[in-house]
Amino acid sequence: MFNSDGASIDLTPLPLLADETTNDTSLSPAQNATEKMLLGIPEWLAQINEDISRLLERGTNIRQLVSARASAIDSLLIALFKWFELDKTDLAFFATGGYGRGELSLYSDIDILLLSPDEIGADASSKIDKLVALLWDIGLEPALSVRSIDDALEAALDHTIASAQLEARLLIGNEALQDMPIQIVNKLWSPRAFFDVKMQESKARYLQHNATEYNLEPNIKTAPGGLRDIHIIGWVTKRYFRVGKLYDLVQQNFLTEKEFDELSFSEGYLWQIRHYLHVLTGRNENKLLFDYQREIAQLMGYETQPDDQPNAAVERFMRDYYRCAMQISTLSEMLTNHYYETIIEPQLPDDERPKKQPINARFNRIGNQIAIAHHRVFAQHPDAILEMFLLMGQHGIDKVRTHTLRALKIAARGIDQVYRDNPAHKTLFLANLKEQNYLFHRLRTMNRYGVLGNYVPAFAQVTGLMQYDLFHRYTVDAHTLFLIRILHRFTDPMFCDEFPLVSSIFQRIERKEILVLAAMFHDIAKGRGGDHSELGQIESIEFCLSHGMSLADANLVGWLTRYHLLMSITAQKKDISDPEVVTIFADLIGNVTHLNHLYVLTVADMNATNPQLWNSWRATLMKQLYSQTRRILRADIDAPTNRQDMISATRTQAQAMLDNVNNQHMNRDEVLRLWDDLGDEYFLREIPEDILWHTEAILNHPPIGLASNADSPPLVVLREHRELALDAVQVFVYTQDQINLFAVTMAVFDQMNLDVLDARIITATRDFALDSYVLLDPSGTLLVDEDSQHELKRRLINAFKDPTVLKLTNKRMPRQLRHFEVTTVINFEFNDASDQHILSLETLDQPGLLARVGQVFLQEQIEVHAARITTLGERAEDMFYISDQNDEPLSADRLEALKSALMDSLTTKRENNVVYSY
Fold this sequence. Notes:
Helices cover 52% and strands 13% of the residues. The chain is of the alpha+beta class.
């Protein structure tokens, strides 16, 4: 971040400077500039990049290499400044920004400033234009500012320009202006004003990256924990301390030796990643995309071990990145707060300074922060480490003074087995989990400063641990803490409308620490091999018993840890409209206490796994499964206990909606006659709201609504559907049933580039198909463009007339999906209730997936009766109820033939990132 003090590195010298004795004559203006300058400089730039890469491979410190490249560019710019005779003007030539700090990666921005005491004349301006043109010609792409002092004064009112000017380093030219850029910043910005604006900038930057270090494809420069977090330390401290090197802050007693070492190591790690990003892309790339993660891991020495899972090496690499990022963001937050507390705060008026109030003999409250009463508190009272966090919850404090954080970080290193075995410490730790106030904030601070990982060593093992997929958005430790945060939201009135049922259940649970402990341990055994749920169950029970909890409570925590995935899997992958499925699930749950706790934990877990995972559709599935299971466990005599009861319950609810004043425009007798024709399966699988929508559409579409004439035109209607995703569209198709309907429909959706999020395929008793699909239109026009709607309807109707003409299109594989391999798994299960087979398909989500599946069904003469479409990141997990075209179950031979055909179709090859079928 600060001017590098690395040892000198010898790179290939600039050709024009190789013979110092001919320096001036070799740059004779009489010679053609293009021939003289372009002949060797682009090759020289390429050569020094190769030199740097070679030296890095040989183990040279990256800090020395970024400094060496900056020095090489210095020599070039100084030579060019002389070449264009700008040294004969009163201009000063500055390196600014990162270049001013002496930090250049291979394709970093080269920020330069030409500063003039007065307005720049025509002659100098002409020379500057030639300089800029040449810089572009040789491939440097400079970010050049040309300003007079008055211009610089006006420009520095922008805090981003002021930040760059704080880094200004004179290369050549008017030495009288050497300190002018910094003097301008000091004149325009007071320490407090500059601090405040940089903190606002930092907050906005964090929000752009979801306020977490743990994004799947982080920007190593601007994301939380990126290089910018180190830069901001320099900007605010340079404004006050007037220092140029990071180590100068140690000499100013602002930074400790340990903090300096941690920042330097983490910065070097990010610089090394940045170097390889530039090598792979050939540009100033800072986003660590999936495209580069695996290769950079290999380049940085992360090798796959014999017993490793396929993604183990890249996951170790990303774990180390996330740990460095957390270290940087933690230190940046602490040091900028330290600057405020030690530099800004003492200068505030008395009425603005936080007041100190004693909490007890060991802690004070200073404004909204907690602080140790003296620097020996943790050394003299080790239990104060955990006591402090409990006091924060009891007194509604969510922040800690920086001198206390520094002492805490040191004290946390002393948490060992002896500390963990102390009964008083166990009581304090458990009391912290029982105290719900600011629990997420307290645990987050514990995690960042080493308390949580040292007290629960297994938690340290999953800190920074990621899964190389698109489904798990956060590292295990971040996900766990987010889960606990969401649990707390269930008590917040702000979120009651979003989680009405879950909130009411959670608020009635008296021992909330049970769920907090289950949250802490549910993923704690990930990354070890084996079933993490089973391993976590063992560890959670041992932990609870060792902390004095009853056997019943310990077993409940263990049970929740063991079965934390059961409810989401059942709701999303099973047919919960089948009473037998719900009964089996209820038997596994056992009692209402288990059900209540598991429901709350599952909803929180899904929300904390991936923000895009939770939607109204999944909420409805979860609520339906919870309600049906609760009725069974409570032996509710009014609850539907079989298929017929569930059908009757749905019809009753739909009829009640029909009798609502808003639906009285429909003829009740016609509605009931139609419902009799639609069949039991329809009322088993549809919800009352959709039943009313379908009913009105059918009755408004004669003759199809009133007759079963084979010549009746199909009904296709669309409406907005926000339950599965924003901008989703629900399409309802009502037509004479025919073979291949699913395959034909999927092919049309594929041709129009529409993604299927959900599908319900039902055949009415009078041989009419009632198919409902939820689609996502990547272009976002289907809802608002009537022409697109008419085109979709036209294509569907024409395809229904000629269902054998199917043409699939080859499509480009989305960038993120190119980097994942998902083994295709196909299973069959016979469903006695429907007399059909259930086909379960797990495979890589890919363009045209359902269209290709539909084509196989067409070729194999398979009839689809229902479908459940689920996409989890890069993984598609779909379920189909199938039979032959005579509605008869499939033989073993036909199942095997179908499986083989599907496997062949879903085997993909990638040419220029386009998906083709074999």
